[in-house]
What does this fold into?
Amino acid sequence: MNSKIPHKLIFIYNADSGIRNVIVDSAHKIFSPDTYGCSLCDITYGAFTERSTWRKFRKETDLQMVFLHKNEFAKVYASKFGYKFDFPIVLVETNNGLEVFVNTGELNGIENAELLIDLIKERSL
It folds into this structure.
């Protein structure tokens, strides 16, 4: 395994988990997409389902990936380590803890799954 390949990528959506939040988020994406606050959600999911390009990449990559909503991240990581990040974000878990892999500003500038996939591949090699 290449030494630059991350231990684990942690994708954190700027949304909370739960069926109510999923319904509200889907409606927001449909009726007011310009004000939707999670670019990572837009990149990886349509209004209701995962984008096929992203799903294919996720299934075929050797990278270990974990997907969390911001409330799930807070439960798993923030209470233990006091991490504070803006969301959405992609973190990498290393022997030294969590580090930013793709920051919020970068995610906000990415227009589609293909561009995110290219960035992940570039930074993982």
